[in-house]
Amino acid sequence: MRLLLTRLDPAVPTDFIRIQEHTMSDEIDFDEILGKYHSDPYEYVDIFAEHTGKIRFLVEGGSSVEAVSGEWKHIPGTPLFEITRERNPKKITATTNGVVSFIAGELEGRFVEAGEKLMTIRHPLKKKEIIEAILKEVLYIFPAPERAKYFFSLDVQSRIEKKGAREVSVKPGDEIIIMSLMKRDTPVYYSGEKGVIHSVYFKPGISVDRGAPLIGVCPFEKLPLIQKVITRVKADWDKKE
Amino acid sequence: MSPWNMDNLALLHPAALDDYVLSVELIRRQIVDAPACEEIFRYGACVGSVIYAYPSLSRAMDTARDHIATREKKGVSVANGSLILASSLSLPKGRFSRSWHAPPGGLWGCLILADTFLPPFRNLLPLIPGIACCEALHQDGASDAAIRWVNDVLVQGKKQAGFLIEGFRSPVHGENYHLLGFGLNLNNDTFPPELQETAIALSQVLGCSIDICSFAFSFLAKLRWYVGLLLYEEEQWLARGGRDVYEEEHPIVRRWKELSDTIGRRVQFGYDVLKNPQYEAVVSAIAHDGALVFRHDDGTTSVEHSGEIRYRQ
């Protein structure tokens, strides 16, 4: 079994991230996956109300929005809407760039419950993002337990420095990562399929949101398959471009 | 070994700490704080309920880990709030393996806390030791002691005390613990060259020797209060229908703000700020969850939950 993170599930109003369990398949229908991305090379990011409150939209359907930017991700993205609860207005800004493809305009000026879908942003995918998206379908994704900064444990870090991440194997129960939050360092123990660290999604010193992927682990026997995915997507996308 | 060290540590036993709490700290709190003082102290009573005092250790954190593992292997439970104290540490280190000097004359140790906190409250745990230490220093006459985010305690701009919290999962039962390491410079007023410009002992500030045992009672009693307050407020919040997010200003954050001189300062920030400073900005606020809110030179803001700062002015 593996975990796959998908974005923004309205069925889980108190949480902005859904964690699904999937079984890794041995076979990948490349044509189907690539066909899907060719015909619709976008990610649809749904935006929900974080909590109850009165809504005032700050964009319209079709508006272009910019993502958060700046060296330290300190420049906010385009303001999307304002939600007011108990006379406390909160501006929600875009975290991804794209175009507003859906907006629940009928909710303008109305009180909404937490988890209510407010809009969808159609985000154009780049080749690298498509490869990452496909890899996330085939790797075991180990998510961040809390919004914090993460770094590899000393043992794992020294093995990565010696051999490279893809030569470092992990198994359930291994102390692989240290979570650092408010000067509190907590070991994070791996709980997933045994395999090698194929993808690292965090950078030391940069905060990671709760539920965002930290590492993608590939069982040893699946490594050739993963390589095939990358080669095939690159070739196919380059051909298309 | 200096006479005050081991002798005084031997006097630090749980019953004496209980007496101090009831006869001094509780009365002090009843005068200035909420009417739930007794209840809050009951919540925090685990702190120092068992005390192990050693003449010397390599690292108190390592001893705490060994203690937990050994007790579990023997089939004996670990008392929540157990304290490991040592008159000196031979291999002390701060975060990122930085140099820390722990000779006789200081207060060195580790508090073992079982991880029984709910996530929004667990994040406030690192604020507690800085507050407890700062209050104890004010009470002893070091009135300019202040906290630098997260929990460094500075007197006259130099570090008097440092704290770090490390998580530990016990090897047999997989129970999670917080190991709260503390190092307080009290009578140890001679520092190695690399620390002379940045470290200070309380005896240097007050110009007299410090009774380590008395100071330890005061510091530990305050730790009891704030750990108790964390648990008490957790219970109150649940009773108010609290769910995932704690959006109020916790009394611990409020107290931290009163004792800190971080807000309004221009600082250098970095995850490991000495090795890799990332940027300079002004600290504009402390968020309800204890995070730092920065105002950058271009007028934008950012929030940091992890890392460290150094004052620039």
User: Compute the gyration radius of chain A: what is it?
Assistant: 20 Å
User: What structural class do the secondary elements of chain A suggest?
Assistant: alpha+beta
Give helix % range of chain B.
25-40%
Q: Please report the number of helical segments of chain B.
A: 9
The total tally of domains of chain B equals 2
* Parts with pLDDT < 50 across at least 5 consecutive residues of chain A: 1-25
Plain-language structure description:
The complex is a heterodimer of chains A (241) and B (313). Chain A is α+β, with helices and mostly antiparallel strands and 241 residues long. Chain A folds into two domains: 2-40 and 127-240, OB fold (Dihydrolipoamide Acetyltransferase, E2P) (Beta Barrel), CATH 2.40.50; 42-124, OB fold (Dihydrolipoamide Acetyltransferase, E2P) (Beta Barrel), CATH 2.40.50.100. Chain A has four helices and 18 strands. Chain A has helices spanning 30-39, 127-138, 154-163, 223-240; strands spanning 2-7, 17-22, 42-48, 53-57, 64-65, 79-85, 88-93, 98-103, 111-112, 117-124, 140-143, 148-152, 169-170, 175-181, 184-189, 195-200, 207-208, 213-218. In chain A, helix 2 (127-138) runs antiparallel to helix 4 (223-240). Chain B is of the alpha+beta class and 313 residues long. Chain B has two domains: 3-239, BirA Bifunctional Protein, domain 2 (2-Layer Sandwich); 263-311, SH3 type barrels (Roll), CATH 2.30.30.100. Chain B is 35% helix and 22% strand. Chain B has nine helices and twelve strands. A seven-stranded mixed beta sheet of chain B has the order 1-2-3-7-6-5-4, with helices on both faces. The longest helix of chain B has 28 residues, at 212-239. Chain B is globular, with a radius of gyration of 19 Å. The chains are: A alpha+beta (241), B alpha+beta (313). At the A-B interface, strand 14 and strand 15 of A face strand 6 and strand 11 of B.
